[in-house]
Amino acid sequence: MPNVAWVQDLSKIYSKPGTGVEVAALRTVSIEFVSGEYTAIMGASGSGKSTLMNILGCLDRPTAGKYVLGGDDVSQLADDDLSEIRSRRIGFIFQNFNLIPQLTVLENLEVPMFYLGYPPAQRRARAKELAERVELSHRLDHRPTELSGGQQQRVCIARSLVNDPLILLADEPTGNLDSKTGEAILTLFDELVSAGKTILMVTHDPTVAHRCHRVIRLHDGLIASDERNARRAVESEAGQLSPA
Predict the structure, then answer these.
(1) Cβ distance 58 to 90 under 8 Å?
(2) What pLDDT was estimated at residue 19?
(3) Angle value at C-alpha 203, between 199 and 204, nearest 5 degrees
(4) What is the Cα–Cα distance from 64 to 162, expressed in whole angstroms?
(5) Residue 162 burial by Cβ neighbours in a 10 Å radius (0-12, 13-18, 19+)
């Protein structure tokens, strides 16, 4: 399968305000992401996973190294260009949903298409199509506060698909959901991957990572491990954590 994105010798260094102290959040990280692959990114707090996802999502730039998305080097693009890449090539799925509370489900789905320049009729048709895909066509006129957590996350997933993105970035997408609702959301992710979507997901939960094709673990800004047999990788970790 072709690479949909890759990073080479990626580093990100932050300066602590007022101290002159520099902190390396990422250190010469190199990864290739294959089209249609389902990848879990794991690591303790401060390991670099949020920094990596911010760069992959074109929300930040690396200090050094290269990031190629869909064949284009986006490593050092200007803010306006990064914004354009985000809106057209990347889908975001957040733990806290980030829906606009004053708008209905239908309107929340139409908003990104408005900024992409879709005409009204096309926005409405696409929004309805995506709502049906996540089984929410019966809730189009409801606002986020009238939905369950699982339904709000389904809206977020539908919204992430508006631009038919090259990659979907999910940040702890089931973190605020109960186990049954979380399972339903993960099943929807399975279906998206089966349909050819590329998903990169930050998670701290080995049972969630267990469903992925690949598990990448970061430690102190470096790749500690990169396993494409997720089941073996997660079971190995569970064995190491078990008492002797």
Answers:
(1) yes
(2) 80
(3) 160
(4) 31
(5) buried
Tell which residue, 138, 107, 144, 141, has the closest CA to residue 124: 107
Burial zone of 28 (CB within 10 Å; 0-12 exposed, 13-18 middle, 19+ buried): middle
Which tokens hold the place of 239?
Answer: 């064995």
pTM of the model: 0.88
Q: Which two tokens stand for residue 107?
A: 């309107």
Alpha-carbon Rg for the chain, nearest whole angstrom, is 18
Structure-block tokens of residue 151? 């339904």
Question: What per-residue confidence (pLDDT) applies to 244?
Answer: 37
- What pLDDT, on the 0 to 100 scale, is given for residue 231? 53
3-241 sits in which CATH class?
alpha beta
Encoded tokens for 237:
């970790």
List, for the chain, all residue ranges whose pLDDT scores fall below the cut of 70. 1, 230-244
Q: Could you say which DSSP state residue 102 is in?
A: T
